[in-house]
Amino acid sequence: MFDNFLFLSSAALTVCGALAVVLAPNLMHACTYLLTTLIGVSGLYVTLSADFLAATQLVVYVGGVVILMLFAIMLTGGNDNKSVNKFGIEKVAPMGNAKTFTLAGFSALIMALVILKIIANVNKATPKTELPPYETTVEKIGELLITDHVLAFEISSVLLLGALIGAALIARPRRREE
Amino acid sequence: MMNDNVVSFFSEAPPYQALNEKLTYLLNFDTRGMMAFVVYFVAAFVVVNVMALIGGLGTYAERKISADIQMRQGPNRVGPFGLLQFLADGVKMIMKEDILPKAADKYLFFIAPILCMVGVFATLAVLPFSSGFTLTHLNIGVFYVLGVSSLVGVGIFLGGYSSNSKWSMLGGMRGASQIISYEVPVTLSIIAMVMLGGGLNFQTIVDGQGGLPHQWFIFHNPFTIISFVVFFIGMLAETNRAPFDLPEAESELVSGYHTEFTGMRFAFFALAEYVEVFVVCGVAAALYLGGYQVPFGLSSLEFLHTKVGLPMAPARMIGQFLEIGGFVTKTVLLYYVVIWIRWTLPRLRVDQLMTLCWKYLTPIALFNLVGIAVWIYLFNGESMWNLVFKTGAAAAGHH
Fold first, then answer.
1. What is the pTM of this model?
2. What is the ipTM of this complex?
């Protein structure tokens, strides 16, 4: 019963947050609604007993990506029209118009069909059984990362190193040419 | 495999099981879930209230210790030694007018203090007060703390942004960038301790240590001492404490990100800060200073039940309270050091802050991580004291 409650509340958080993100007129508010969605997704991971993934979701998205988005929105001023003050707070025009909403709705429909098609196969292939008992996934993930998936792990770390060097290069004070 | 938590601690006691059977008989359904819910609820209620009290007392301690350092009296009118000052402050905060700036973003202005509070209080779920009385010994406890405490950064940033004031904005930006930057050396130091302890669970890490200083992870090997120093500095920066209180630098930014907040909204920010300091001191105590371990195994059942001869139930409870005593003592001592540092050191400049983080602390923490890994590999995870004792014993002719 508790699992059901956890699942339903996480799912509700995710869906409501996602809807609010799309419908919010203010980009900054949309970002905070995104926060609810991400926490909801992390709750969904917990109900699937993927504890490490849930915590990673919190660390990466709540602590990193959302703050990055907030910074980006603030520094770029939200949108171009002049009805905003310099912090982008007041009079932000609604995000999107009829055209963008139609396009987005259409693409969401296609995506949903594709995903449902994939999930249908999985559902057919595996009979419904009781969930396996809860066990921690940290050790397994750690082992897999440095054995089977070591190449992916190394490639992603090289990518991150590249990002770090790039950031340092951009942020470095340039010598003035006289 | 369920992890240990406060419910599993109580459910081992015979009265709990008897009550459960009785309730199951009376209500005609399995009441284990309900009982667990009630125990969790009561425990969470107690923890949140006690921590709020500790946050309040933190403000009192801050003022009293700063007064001591500056040779003043400090608050001394309300209650004995001014102890009830924080209650008077709380009443004052509630009575104050709740001012909402006209140009502020109302929704963000409303949720910013709440985000700070939620981020801090969510970490209390895994803070290891004792082996039994922790809300839950989560398998990923350390990681969970890192995750939910990042909500505080979002709260501070939004607080600064939503006020629509230059000073708040600067404070909020400084706060967010500072918290993100110092997460790197802090996390690297924590990873080293996770390697030594062999798990992300606070219980595993604390149980890997002993009650006496030479069994603590801080004195495990030379690298861990450096690791502790890095962690402590980073922790000061993450909680925006002096000398890293740039987000609320009162000489430049009025009061930083909470300039525009009044009444209880401001109190939420202040309370969140003081509770967060307690939480991070608790994490430091658990990772480096043996956490809830009590010297000579005084809190163990083996000692209290078998040797002293206490009955089972009181022995368990007394053991738990001794452990809480050990944990709180270490945490409060660290809390004192944090306040002491605030009233001793001058504030850093922004560029010095970033230089310290990226040019000193991060490389040190990285090399430290490698050093500790090499130590574990070379000496099989033994502490330097064990090695010294062994060589000493060998030299004295013990073979």
1. 0.85
2. 0.78
